[in-house]
Amino acid sequence: MTKYGYARVSTIAQSLEEQTRALNAEGCTTLYAEKFTGTTKDRAEFTALLSVVEDGDTIVVTKLDRFARSASDAINIIRDLFDRGVRVHVLNMGVVENTSMGRLMLTMLAGFAEFERDMIVERTQTGRAIARQREGYRDGRKPKYSRKQLDHALKLKETHSFTQVAEITGISIATLKRESARRKASEG
Fold this sequence. Notes:
By secondary structure, the protein is of the alpha/beta class. 52% of the residues lie in helices and 13% in strands. Helix 3 packs antiparallel against helix 4. The radius of gyration is 25 Å and the shape is elongated.
C-alpha cells in the first residue's frame, strides 16, 4: 500500500515546489511531477503513475484539476482508479470515497473545476480583446530590442555585414535580417 503524489503545473514558468511540499507533508513516498497543460491528455508522468498503482494504493493531488481540466475526464479517471481498488485523496477536499455520496461529490466538484477553468479562459480572452483595442498593442511577447536599438543596428548595416553588426550590438543575425526584411516590405 503505497501513497503516490502527483503534481502538475500548466506552464514551464510555473513552479511545482508548493505542490511537492504539500504532497511530501502528506506522506507520499513517491512523487510524479510534470509541467504540462491539463487540457492535454498525453501526460507522460501521469500515465506512468497510472501504470504503477495497484489495489490498496492511494494517489494524492493538491487539487482536483491536477487530474484533468475536463469534468468527464476526471470522473472517468477516478472511476477507473476506484475499479482498480486505488484510493484518491484530493488535499483541498479530502479522500474521494467510492460510495454513492463520494461519486456525487466527485461529479459536482469536477464540474466546478471545469467551470472555473472555462471562466479563466473567458476572462483571459476578454482581457486580450480589450487590450487589442488599445493603440500600439501587439499580441505576444514584448520586443527584446527597442525601436532605437534596431534603428542604430540597421544604420550600422549600411557599412557593416550582418555578422559585424551582430557582434557590435549583441542583436542576433536572425533578428537583424527579420527586421531588415520587415522594413523593406513596409517601404515597398
